[in-house]
Design goal:
Blueprint: H1 2-17, E1 33-43, E2 49-57, E3 60-62, E4 69-74, E5 79-86, E6 89-97, E7 102-110, E8 116-123
Antiparallel strand pairs: 1-2, 1-8, 2-3, 3-4, 4-5, 5-6, 6-7, 7-8
Length: about 120
């Protein structure tokens, strides 16, 4: 019993003396700003096309409207990975933004209604 408590004490000391990693500081991304996104359905019964604005801040994508949610990120090389959702419906989004202020990619829904298509982006500021 005594060796168990000594082992636990040694483990506690080891845990508290392990150096803690420095917190990463979010650096503004070259892709930060407002983007106009055009979404086009190429397969399935989803709306044919629509356009909405997305804001990228420190590489994180967001949408200010209340009709659906956008969450995702843009990596330092412009690679996009995101999800668009409304209620229990969602779509995975992949693609790339370019330094020249344009981008494109594809999307595919998750769930019982299957749709897919492409998207185009243009920087607005």
């Amino acid at each position: 019993m005594r060796s168990m408590s000594m082992a636990a004490a040694a483990l506690a000391v080891a845990i508290t003396t392990v150096p803690v990693e420095a917190k990463k500081v979010a650096v503004p991304s070259r892709y930060d700003g407002n983007w106009s996104i055009e979404v086009i359905t190429e397969d399935g019964p989803c709306d044919r096309a629509y356009r909405y604005g997305v804001k990228i801040a420190r590489g994180q994508a967001s949408y200010a409207g209340d009709d659906f949610d956008v969450s995702g990120q843009v990596s330092g090389n412009g690679s996009v990975r995101a999800m668009i959702s409304r209620g229990s419906d969602s779509a995975n989004v992949v693609g790339r933004l370019g330094r020249e202020g344009v981008g494109n990619g594809s999307w595919t829904t998750n769930g019982p209604i299957r749709c897919s298509g492409r998207w185009n982006a243009e920087r607005r500021g």
